[in-house]
Design brief:
Shape: globular
Strand order of the largest sheet: 15-12-14-13-17-18-16
Number of helices: 42
Helix content: 40-55%
Structural class: alpha/beta
Number of strands: 26
Radius of gyration: 29 Å
Length: about 950
């Protein structure tokens, strides 16, 4: 094996290329300027300052069409850090932008100076008053907050489509609303209180009874200025009426001037102004929301119409019938959403003119639900519905899976349609609102405008509230295309304001692309009041300049990002960030979005440029080595981009021919490898952890750490080399003990049956005996080679296991039961691309079941539970997410324990076979939040379904994790 690291140049993106106009300049190759870096390190410490050029590039993009490279990135841990950064910026005349999830669509999460990450250390939910309120930290995703509220039958009012990724701080800062919030359930209306840090560093808690007194003492000029503006606005009846009229429909363009009308004191005014201020007035460090009823009884329909105006015309009827949500989707949106798993494939054949309404009623009880359905039926009688393809039903349903599929297609609007755009084009997402009664007319005008400017756009929106979204794709590297976009925007903004008196931003906030049109919508008087408000609160202009207010009429054309083509699997990425919350390395190195953004920057550079060289030097560890390869990013990406698969391909590219030959040799001789691994574990057990840690530690210094695993105290002793005796004639299934369960024994202190013994005993006890083939030794699911990118070794083992399984199962007549979820996934799916044509046919005849599914479906109904523990905590594995087997694991846990807990922050443990031993820091980072939940209270059992994940969770929590089937065997033992 080579002792050196792989040559970084192996991963160079493409060959000769022309430098892009928006490339990072050569002068930034060394990252943050030394004086700035050293000064911030002195203020905050070295761990909170990210200064490499790779750090700056990965934070330079968000979900918007803009890209601005910061000078430095600060990872703030608490309010003291935020105050310190603000104090430093004031003293040095610098600018600060706060960034959380980076899902904003208008460049709000980008800055050109100091960018402060307020996601990593800012998550947390506290449910108050039996769910009536919730205290939520700004780095918490909407999905995470709602998960905490769900047991109480409550939910947050704002429900943006990006809820899986967007965080509460951004939701409040942009007054994001979503499908059902409208103008009554958004942040402005449901926020009970908030705590924020002003640009001066003053901290304000609006729930504090003494807040106004303390603010007046600390900020007398600010208080006087706010009250003077309030008096001026209230004295102007015409302006007051105009402000009230503007917020009768959804509107997030500019500052909330109605805060001056709704608030009586400076603190109350600030509480309103902070909502929708886009980080330009201060940092929101904590929120308290009044929640709304969840409405568990749901009736939903997806109704198809011959045209967009026809669909829009049907909206008022459903509004009057009491629908909570009426969502509009045009033909382009519907067709593009076929990339979303579960969406009918025949939607791809829908006529371009087709449109659909997703209509939903939510009720607290059966009687109310039935009444809504009667009203819905009455509305439908007068509609001209169409069924252009076979899957269209045009009927209301209560089926949760069908409803979830409809919403998944709708919520994927930006990413699914954006992912289908031509490669190399930039995506613009526009968002506007008109009075709902004018929606049909606005749709017709919008379609005409798009057609005249040559945009094959997609339209969707919250039709119940007159709120439409549409997408435009163009080449930001082509001046002619940029000019086409600019001309379109001029006409669109004039049309929205002058024809419909609408809002140029209904829920995505002003951002960089509507700032130049603020005065067009609000007029000079109100716009000037916004400028004066900014001056009162942030007189030095420290926070987020040019994001809400910008006097440059061409500001929306500045900073448009080019999208160079990279690897085909990654080209559809629009950098939306939906992949980031599930990524195990998100708090350690990079996320899937950032891995792709770094590749794109390499392609913007000239071949061999200093920036490219520096990016390549860090990409190996930051992107490739610390990717767990779990591919859950592909599940959460609406267009299914599997960045894990791309990183595995890069691992393959980095292998030397010698490494590939050794890996193939290991596959061919895996029986010997398997036996050797058991001997090594036995030696480690005898010699002790300290000795083994010293030996592997020394080896990792001589040979690169990516090749030599670190010995961990949690590694168990060897498994018994003899598997339980079974008999083939009576067997109803073939049991394949995975190699990890043939190599690794039970956790220390769990000196009972091994997992293979438990599976055999349980199956016999239930009258469903299994058979273990005599020749399982030397076979494997091939995941070892697949995850590391050893292609030839992967081919060898993939074909071997399928041929063996076909023979064991009598040509697929018996199911194959596998006792590790990653191995189940490997045999069921991952081996397929590596099979010969003949073996692919054999594979198609196999039925591969995970052992938890076998136990839940076949054994549990036939067993008597005799002993239950009080409480069990469960760790669902990432492979179970891919297979959809989580419910089976929960069923087994529920049979064994009175209380079953799945941590709210449960996710991939990133142990990933041996990756947690190659890079222990990855598992430590990935499991930190889940481990904190687990160790906060005692449990009687810690259950999972994969031996290596269990070792990873042992290390993360200090608790002993083991298979749920071991616990089921105990629970049903006579």
């Amino acid at each position: 094996m080579p002792v050196r690291e792989p040559n970084p140049q192996i991963l160079r993106a493409g060959g000769k290329r022309r430098p892009a106009p928006d490339r990072v300049p050569d002068l930034q190759a060394r990252g943050t300027p030394k004086p700035l870096r050293e000064e911030l390190v002195a203020v905050l410490g070295p761990d909170k300052v990210l200064s490499r050029v790779s750090d700056l590039v990965r934070y330079a993009s968000d979900a918007s069409p803009y890209r601005f490279v910061p000078q430095v990135v600060v990872v703030a841990e608490d309010i003291d850090d935020v105050s310190a950064v603000l104090s430093y910026a004031h003293g040095k005349g610098r600018e600060v932008v706060f960034r959380a999830a980076g899902t904003s669509l208008n460049g709000q999460a980008q800055g050109e100076d100091i960018l402060v990450d307020v996601r990593r250390h800012w998550a947390g939910v506290e449910v108050l008053d039996d769910g009536a309120r919730a205290r939520i930290r700004p780095g918490t995703t909407v999905v995470r907050a709602n998960a905490a509220l769900a047991p109480y039958g409550r939910v947050l009012g704002p429900d943006p489509a990006s809820a899986i990724a967007c965080t509460i701080g951004g939701v409040v800062a942009n007054n994001a609303s979503g499908m059902t919030a409208g103008t009554t359930r958004n942040s402005y209306r449901t926020l009970a209180s908030l705590t924020f840090v002003l640009p001066s560093g003053t901290v304000v808690d609006t729930a504090d009874p003494d807040a106004d007194v303390e603010l007046a003492r600390a900020e007398p000029r600010l208080c006087a200025g706010l009250l003077a503006l309030k008096a001026e606005i209230e004295a102007d009846r015409e302006l007051t009426a105009r402000i009230r009229a503007k917020y009768a429909i959804k509107n997030t363009n500019g500052y909330r001037l109605d805060a001056f009308l709704d608030g009586a004191t400076p603190v109350e005014i600030l509480r309103g102004l902070m909502v929708g201020s886009e980080g330009t007035f201060g940092f929101i460090s904590e929120t308290v929301f009044d929640t709304v009823p969840l409405g568990r009884r749901v009736s939903t329909a997806l109704l198809f119409f011959p045209s967009l105006p026809a669909a829009a015309a049907a909206v008022p009827g459903f509004n009057e019938a009491g629908a909570l949500a009426v969502e509009l989707m045009d033909g382009n949106t519907l067709r593009a959403s076929v990339s979303v798993p579960g969406v009918p494939a025949d939607w791809a054949e829908l006529p371009k003119e087709t449109a659909a309404l997703l209509v939903e009623f939510r009720a607290p009880d059966e009687a109310t639900q039935e009444a809504y359905e009667v009203e819905a039926a009455r509305v439908m009688e007068g509609l001209d519905l169409v069924a252009p393809v076979a899957s269209v039903r045009n009927a209301f349903t209560r089926d949760p899976k069908t409803v979830a599929g409809y919403w998944k297609a709708r919520k994927a609007f930006v990413t699914a349609v954006g992912g289908a755009r031509p490669p190399g084009t930039t995506l613009i997402t526009e968002d506007f609102a008109v009075p709902p009664a004018l929606l049909a007319e606005a749709c017709a005008e919008l379609l005409d405008l798009q057609d005249r400017h040559g945009f094959d756009a997609a339209v969707a929106g919250h039709a119940a509230h007159g709120n439409l979204h549409f997408l435009l794709a163009f080449d930001a590297a082509d001046p002619g295309d940029v000019e086409r976009y600019a001309t379109f925007m001029d006409e669109f903004c004039k049309l929205t304001v002058e024809r419909f008196d609408g809002s140029l931003k209904a829920e995505h906030a002003t951002g960089r692309n509507i700032a130049p049109f603020l005065e067009l919508e609000w007029g000079p008087k109100a716009t000037e009041l916004m400028w004066r408000t900014k001056e009162v609160i942030d007189p030095d202009g420290v926070l987020a300049p040019r994001i809400v207010l910008d006097r440059d009429p061409q500001a929306h054309l500045r900073g448009l990002k080019t999208i160079p083509t990279v690897e085909p699997i990654a080209d559809p990425c629009i950098e939306c960030g939906f992949c980031e919350p599930t990524c195990p390395s998100r708090d350690l190195t990079t996320t899937p979005r950032q891995r792709i953004a770094l590749r794109r920057e390499m392609m913007r550079q000239a071949d061999g440029a200093p920036v490219e060289t520096r990016l390549l030097e860090s990409y190996g560890y930051d992107a490739v080595d610390t990717c767990a390869g779990d591919s859950t990013c592909g599940l959460d990406c609406p267009v299914g981009i599997d960045t894990g698969a791309l990183m595995k391909e890069f691992r393959h590219q980095r292998h030397s021919p010698r490494e590939e030959r050794i890996a193939t040799l290991a596959a061919r001789n895996f029986r010997t490898v398997e036996a050797s691994a058991r001997l090594a574990l036995g030696a480690g057990e005898r010699l002790g952890d300290g000795f083994m840690e010293s030996v592997t530690g020394l080896a990792r210094k001589v040979v690169r750490s990516g090749l030599v695993p670190e010995w961990l105290p949690e590694i168990p002793g060897p498994a018994n080399r003899r598997l339980p005796r079974t008999h083939r004639p009576a067997a109803v299934a073939v049991y394949f003990p995975s190699c990890v369960n043939r190599i690794f024994g039970n956790p220390t202190g769990l000196d009972d049956l091994s997992l293979p013994e438990a599976v055999v005993a349980l199956s016999a006890r239930a009258g469903r005996p299994v058979w273990i083939p005599d020749d399982v030794a030397g076979t494997c699911c091939a995941t070892i080679w697949h995850s590391k990118g050893y292609e030839r070794g992967n081919e060898v083992m993939a074909n071997r296991i399928v041929e063996a399984a076909w023979g064991w199962t009598a040509g697929g007549r018996l199911p194959l039961v596998v006792d590790a979820s990653s191995c189940t996934l490997g045999i069921a799916r991952d081996v397929v691309p590596w099979l010969t044509d003949d073996n692919r046919e054999l594979h198609a005849e196999l039925t591969v079941l995970d052992s938890v599914v076998w136990a839940a479906d076949e054994l549990l109904p036939r067993l008597d539970v005799r002993h239950r523990v009080a409480a069990a905590v469960v760790h669902p594995t990432c492979s179970m997410r891919h297979l959809g087997d989580e419910d089976s694991l929960l069923a087994l846990a529920g049979a064994c324990a009175e209380e079953v807990v799945v941590p709210s922050d449960a996710g991939c443990c990133a142990f990933a076979g041996d990756r947690g031993m190659l890079h222990p820091e990855l598992t430590a980072s990935a499991t930190a939040r889940e481990a904190a939940e687990v160790t906060a209270r005692p449990f009687d059992a810690h259950l999972s379904a994969n031996r290596m994940c269990e070792i990873g969770m042992d290390r993360a929590t200090g608790r002993t994790y083991y298979s749920a089937l071991l616990e089921l065997e105990r629970a049903t033992r006579p």
